[in-house]
Amino acid sequence: MCEVVNQAVQQAVSRRRLLGGAGAAALATGVTAAAGSAAASPAPPASPAPGKGPGGDADARRYRSWLTLLGTSGGPVWWPGSEREGIGSAVVVDGDVYLVDFGDGSGKRFKQAALVPPEMRTPGGFWGEEMIRAMFLTHLHSDHVADYFDYFMLGWTNGLRSRPSQQPIQVFGPGRRIDEHGNVVMEPIFTKPGESTPDIRVENPNNPVPGTVDMTNSLYQAFALDINDRMRDNRYPDLREIFAINDIAIPDGIGYHPNDNHTPQGMEPFEVYRDDKVRVTATLVDHFPLVPAFAFRFDTDDGSVVFSGDTGPSRNLVTLARGADILVHEVITQQWVDVLMPPPLTPTEEALRNHLLSAHTLPEDAGRIAEQAGVGTLAFSHIVPGNAPDEHLNGARKHFSGRLVIGRDLMEFGIGKRGR
Fold first, then answer.
1. Which residues of the chain have pLDDT under 70?
2. Is the terminal CB of the chain with fewer CB neighbours within 10 Å at N or C?
3. How far is Cα of residue 395 from the mean position of the Cα atoms in its chain?
4. Under DSSP, is residue 213 helix (H, G, I), strand (E, B) or coil?
5. What span is annotated as the signal peptide, if there is one (predicted)?
6. Mind listing the domains of the chain with CATH numbers?
């Protein structure tokens, strides 16, 4: 989720401080909770056991392929009164596991989900890492990568050392923020109306816009003490031989430039990964200024699942999701935005509000996208705020004639026809 969420919260806090006194202090302290609940609506119920959530499929694991929503919350915020963990999903195809995004707490949900049944686990396998074949990152915002390296460091003692396949786990994510000529392009500095561009320090100036390969190499270095100890004292295998990290190349000739306000629309999905069980295609979506940002589609012999990633309404996503069984789409509620920035809005607040909404999708717009794509099920995940009541999300039903599900952690869906 865009860092603009935090900016919006701070903007709302600053505005309310004008009220003065103890009451204003209390309101400022609780602005996140108020924005999430909009007049103290009840928080979502606690997360169910795998496959038991209302709206999901209780018998999902009787299908050869199924989807598990690991974490369903969005944003770099610990939402009060919410049982949702950070964004993360798993597609299971005939015992093999494919993961999408790694938000805070999603690793814990992966452990709780126990995706691999006991009879299929190898000795010492606890999480299911032994059956992971590939991992995918839609983009590199903190709320999508917080638990990413847990699968490396904790996976060592949870199945990675006893994987039946000796093939590396393939990891795919965005590359550096560069133009078509390979030049680094920093994102523009967000400024308020009438404000001159401030001088902001650049972190890691030698590589200020790292991609997935860069990020992973830096994490190896950051944890060098632990890695070297485990390899020398415990004789653990080299993590670099277990994982193969790949930056996703953006197709040539589509008119892409990092600092365009919108990604090129009308592009055809392109293949990212393929094995004997799944084909994964991708497209660029609108999460400006964080680019590149991808949506992914998983096609199996049983059916198809699409993940929107973080995006505003996108024609590219409609093309990618055409005819899919399930579309897992991010969502932000109008009520939360209105509580943060109630009218009348100053020009600064109006700019911040528009910036926030252009990078994310309202429920009604997600419903339109799902209807245009002709998907069977629309499942909301990466829900902002994470404690949003269902009534703030049901607006999608006005425009979508299929099955709408408000995602909760560990909810599961069968893909295609039942039968293992």
1. 1-54, 117-127, 418-420
2. C
3. 22
4. helix
5. 1-33
6. 4-15+66-179+210-414 (3.60.15.10)
Amino acid identity of 140? L
> Cβ contacts of residue 290 below 8 Å, gap of 6+?
2, 139, 140, 141, 187, 310, 359
Angle CA 264–267–272, to nearest 5: 110
**Alpha-carbon distance 240 to 247, whole Å?**
15
Contacts of 17 (CB under 8 A, 6+ apart): 24, 25, 28
The DSSP 8-state label assigned to residue 201 in this structure reads P
Which tokens sit at 205? 């100036």
Q: Are 156 and 239 in contact (CB under 8 A)?
A: yes
Give every CB contact of residue 292 below 8 A, 6+ residues apart in sequence: 139, 174, 175, 177, 248, 250, 256, 258, 263, 284
Across 68-94, b (16+ Cβ under 10 Å) vs e yields bbbbbbbbbbebeebbbbbbbbbbbbe
Give the 3-state secondary structure percentages of the chain, helix then strand then coil, rounded to 5.
30, 20, 45
pTM across the whole model: 0.89
Is residue 91 within 8 Å of 98, Cβ to Cβ?
yes
Instruction: Name which of 275, 223, 191 is nearest 4 in CA terms.
Output: 191
pLDDT digits (tens, 9 = 90+) for 91-125: 999 989 999 999 999 999 999 999 876 666 666 66
